[in-house]
Amino acid sequence: MYNDKKVVFSGVQPSGNLTIGNYLGAIRNFSAFSNEYHCYYCVVDMHAITVRQNPAELRRRTYETLALYMACGLDPEKNTLFVQSHVPQHAELGWVLDCYTMFGELSRMTQFKDKSAKNADNINAGLFTYPSLMAADILLYQTELVPVGIDQKQHLELARDIANRFNQIYGETFVVPEGFIPKEGAKICSLQDPTKKMSKSDTNENAVVRILDSKDDIIRKFKRAVTDSNNEIIFSLEKPGISNLLTIYSCVTDKTIAEAEREFAGMGYGDFKLAVGEAVADNLAPVRAEFARLMADKAYLEATMAKGADEAFRNARRTMSKVKRKIGFTEPKH
Ligand code: TRP
Predict the structure, then answer these.
(1) Pocket lining: 9 vs ligand 1, CB cutoff 6 Å
(2) Separation CA 200–CA 210 (nearest Å)
C-alpha cells in the first residue's frame, strides 16, 4: 500500500536456540521473497516475555536471532531486519486490536491452551492476548504474505478475522494477509517422539536438533532418533519416526520423498539415520560459520538493528496514524 512492492512479514521469537524445524519450516524460505517483495523479518522480543525470561539471556538471544537471520541468507540491504520492541507502534496497535479481538476467539487458540498447561504458574494476560499482538505485527506493514510454520496457521486466521472486522467497521484500513505455509518442512517432529512437533523448549536435548549444534552433536542425536518397528524405510502414517527422518532428509537435500525412499531402499535403520545426520550437518555448516563471524562483530549487528528499526518505524507510523484517525483518537497540536 505504501510501496510499489507487496509486503512480506514474519517473526521469530528470541526465546530459545532455534531448531532445524524453525530453519527448514520457516527461516530458510524467507530469502526467496526478497526480490519480489518488501520483506520485514522481525525478532519478536515482546512475544517472548509472555513466558518468563532471564534478562541477560533474552538480550543475547535477540542478537543471536538477528545474526541467525543473516547467517541463513537474509541480506539486511534487501530486507528490513529489526527488533519488535524498537518500534513502539507494535505495542500501540496491539492494544487497539485487543479491543477488536473477542475473549472467545482467544480462548480457542491451541497455542494458548498448550502454553497455559506448560506454564500453569504464569498464565498472564499477555499469553492470552499474544495473537492480537501478532496481528498488530502483521497489519502494521500492510502485509500481503506471512510465511510461517503450520503451527501458526490458527493465529494467522485470527489476524485475518481481526483485519476484516476492523475494515468492516471503519472502511479499508488494513490489507488482509495470506499465510504462506510450505508443504514440506512445515512440520519437523521431535526425534524422540515423532508424533509431536520439534520444540525449541523441549527439555530432552536428544529430541531437538539446533541450527547451531556441532556436527558431532547432530550425528549423535540422529543416531539416537526413535524409529519404528520393521525395517522398511518408507513414508507412511504408521511410521512417524521414519517419515520424519525422510522429511528432514528431503528438505536438506532438495530431493523428493520418493527419491529419498529409493536411495535408502534396503538399507538398515542405523546407516539411514547416520546418512540423514550427515546431510543435516553438512547443510548447516555454512550457516554455523557465518553465524560465528557475525556474533563476533557486535558493532555491525547493532548498526543493522538500528537501520532496520528506522525503516520499520517509517511505515509503521503511517498505518498507526491512519488507525488513530479512523477510531476517533485526537492528535495533540504542538
Ligand atoms: N508467533 C510466532 C511464532 O511463535 C512468532 C510471530 C510473532 C510471528 N509475530 C509474528 C510470525 C508475525 C509471523 C508474523 O512462531
Answers:
(1) yes
(2) 8
